[in-house]
Amino acid sequence: MYQVIELFGDYEPWWFLEGWEEDIVSFELFESYGEALSFYQMKGEQFAQLFPKKEEKRDQPDQDVMVAFWNPDEQRWCEECGENLQQFHSLLIRTVSESVTPLSKTVSEPSSKVKICRLQKEA
């Protein structure tokens, strides 16, 4: 089984910083990689219409597995690091065996809670 995960947060999905799961907006489960890839591509096309910037990462050639979209004007102020942080709308495909996300967790909109700066934690 495969998950297509949608994230919204301060970092592109390939960083997998501690607590990245808190940025999950939603996810869908699929039996085959082909089904997951079709959904991922459809969502990616929708995001491309909404956000002018895009960057992709691939585990293997010709296999899209992670993508981040953003609008340069969509930023939030981080008190801990004293700067504006870009906000990213991201998609990724993971096998369920790789997943650290409880299958019962779904969030319908980005969290409005105050975030702790993960950049400070990593330093």
Task: Describe the protein's architecture and organization.
The chain is α+β, with helices and mostly antiparallel strands. It has one domain (2-122). Helices cover 19% and strands 38% of the residues. It contains two helices and seven strands. The chain has helices spanning 33-50, 118-122; strands at 2-9, 24-30, 53-60, 63-70, 75-78, 83-86, 88-95. The strands form two sheets. Strands 2-1-7-4-3 form a five-stranded antiparallel β-sheet, covered by helices on one side. The protein has a two-stranded antiparallel ribbon with strand order 5-6. The longest helix has 18 residues, at 33-50. It is globular. The model is unreliable at 99-113 (pLDDT under 50).
What is the averaged pLDDT score? 83
Largest sheet: 5 strands, antiparallel
Q: N-to-C terminal Cα separation, in Å?
A: 35 Å
Strand order of the largest sheet: 2-1-7-4-3
Low-confidence stretches: 99-113
**What value does the Rg take, in angstroms?**
14 Å
Strand content: 35-45%
Summing up helix and strand content along with how strands pair, one would put the structural category as alpha+beta
SSE order, one letter for each helix or strand: EEHEEEEEH
Proportion in helices: 10-25%
The overall number of domains is 1
Organism: Streptococcus moroccensis
Protein name: DUF1033 family protein
Pfam family, one: DUF1033
